[in-house]
Amino acid sequence: MSRRGFRWLRNIGFAVAIVQAILLIAYSAPIYSHFDLTLDFGVFNQGWTEIAHGHLNPYSTVNPHNYPHYGYPFLHDHFALIMWPLALLWLVYPHSIDLLVIQDLATAGSTLVAFLFVVDLFEFPLHANSPKISARIRGTAGPVLLSLCVLVLLVGNPWVYWADSFDFHLEAVATCFLLLTARDLWFGRTRRSILWIVAVVLCGNVSTTWLIGLGVGLIIVRKNLRWPGAILIALGIVWAAVISAAGGAVGTLISNYAYLAGPSASPNVGMRPIIVGLLSHPSRGLHILHQRWLWTYRLLATSGLLGVVTAIGIGVTLTVVLPSDLNISPVFSGPISSFQNLPLYFFVPIGSVLVIAWVLRAPSRFIRWAVVPVGVAILIQSVVLAAIWVPKARTQFLQVDSAAATQLERVQAALPATDEVVVSQGVLGRFADRAQVFPFLDIANNGQVFPVFHHRVVFILTSQGIEFASASGTQAAVQYLDSIHAHVLTASGGVFAFSWNPPPGTRTFTFPPAPAE
After folding, report:
1. CA distances (Å), origin 144, targets 147, 187, 351, 358
2. Which of 86, 143, 244, 328 lies 20 to 30 angstroms, CA to CA, from 413?
3. Between these two residues, 402 and 372, which has the higher pLDDT value?
């Protein structure tokens, strides 16, 4: 295949990535306009907005960490230092939809980088060195067919769209930078890779562990990448320890792994007892992994599956899958938490190409042809899963109807920036562009306590969106606000908004438990 052919192949990748970015942004627009943004988006929206307004050490009030206490310094939520430079985008367009656009561009960017990585493997096989793509493959339509098949896997992966449907998460940004790091190191562009490594580190503690996985892969692949791989592993371990020591791991829900330390372990146990417990009693972890195998298979199957066993895939897969699957909450292994597993959807397809290319080097024609039905089966399986699960993302995440969205828009437009706001967590995201905002959760139907900081508190309640509170709990809260003569701002479209002026000296507000259904 000529150099001109590879250039056209890259142009196809650029065109597809641009179209994907446009479609993702077009998809994010109704998510934003319908207020289908939850507590997760609210955490980043509040921090981003506060930083943009000059509050360089913002306090996050959105997360009911250590309830009935709320919040912590925003920096302690994953230690996401990259949010400070991203806050400059407020000067360009001062609306929190910027965060969704950043996520969409990062996702499309990951598609492009992964595709270019594959094309590079075919065009520069001797430089890539593992595996050496034989002249037999390069002299045929193999590079085009395999590259385009990978492009189908990348663009058609349903979990990518599930990830982009659910709020804003820095995993999308970190994945793009991790791919850039891998590509540059793989092809000897070490100096430029330093920029991407720093960017991955700035995305927080979760993405820092991915550097460890990438480092493992680099050590495996070839000798001249062992030192860069070892440095990545050391950097990942040291930076994760620094973040933990600085209290920057609050958002990672370490308590969800406490069971690994033993049945009597405290929910506030640290990482060291958890790791020791997992290594000394692996059956605890293996039991959970066995329960989650089907979803793990689905996540990997849509990405080509074969790439898991390659150097480029194995380390990243382990550092991504194990934290998700070992979490005691099953939601982290399912499609709703697809954002947690984003690197898989890009690194595994790259690895799958390496496996097929390696098989195609076999001297036996039978073995070479045997890989064709395997590749076709993988592609068909991915397309079928995409056809089933991509449409489900819309029904899962777009749950606020137009009537409710109209009322929420009107209420938000009339809110002074100084008001304290309590919002149903399923629509909280856009309301978090202020210093004091709290989620209405109706915690376990036992009511909820909120701190009071301002002379006016606005309550915005609805049963639409992805809600934690039960419908009866929300209705009981509405009735309670009526009973204390809170001023009704709206009671239309399934949205109930009230303003309440607390008596002097009031420090808390309590919703009583909802009546049993």
Report:
1. 5, 20, 16, 16
2. 86
3. 402
173-218 pLDDT, tens per residue? 999 999 999 999 998 888 999 999 999 999 998 899 999 999 999 9
Q: What is the DSSP secondary-structure string of 391-413?
A: HHHHHHH----HHHHHHHHHHHH
pTM here?
0.92
- What's the rounded Cα separation, in Å, for the pair 15 and 155? 12
The pLDDT value recorded for residue 271 is 72
| Among 468, 159, 467, 104, residue whose Cα is nearest residue 335 | 159
Rounded to whole angstroms, how far apart are CA atoms 99 and 163? 14
- Give the chain's radius of gyration (CA, Å): 25
Tell me how far CA of residue 313 lies from CA of 260, 309, 350, in angstroms.
Answer: 26, 6, 8
CA–CA separation, 411 and 489 (whole Å) = 8
- C-alpha dihedral, 314 to 156 to 148 to 352, nearest 10°: 20
Q: How far apart are CA 295 and CA 305, in angstroms?
A: 13
Q: Which of 428, 351, 299, 305 is nearest to 37 (CA)?
A: 428
CB atoms near residue 6 (< 10 Å): 19
Q: Minimum mean pLDDT among 32-36, 360-364, 396-400: which range?
A: 360-364
Sheet of 420-424, strand order: 437-440, 420-424, 457-462, 495-500, 487-492
Share of the chain above pLDDT 90, in %: 55
**If you count them, how many residues does the chain have?**
517
pLDDT per position as a tens digit, 242-273: 988 888 777 666 777 888 888 777 666 767 77
**31: closest CA among 109, 108, 97, 115?**
97
Every domain of the chain and the residues it spans: 3-36+78-397, 402-511
CA dist 158 and 382 (Å) reads: 9
Query: How big is the CA angle at 177 (ends 145 and 247), to the nearest 5 degrees?
Result: 145
Q: Is 413 exposed, middle or buried (0-12, 13-18, 19+ CB in 10 A)?
A: exposed
At residue 131, the pLDDT reads 46
Evaluate whether 412 touches 396 at the Cβ level (below 8 Å): no
Q: What is the maximal distance between C-alpha atoms in the chain?
A: 86
DSSP 178-199: HHHHHHHHHTT-HHHHHHHHHH
CA 468 – CA 443 distance, rounded (Å)? 8
Cβ neighbours of residue 508 under 8 Å, at least 6 residues apart?
449, 450, 451, 452
Neighbour-count burial for 358-392, b at 16+ CB within 10 Å, e otherwise: bbbeeeeeeeeeebeeebeebbeebeebbeebbee
Q: Is there a contact between 64 and 441 (Cβ–Cβ < 8 Å)? A: yes
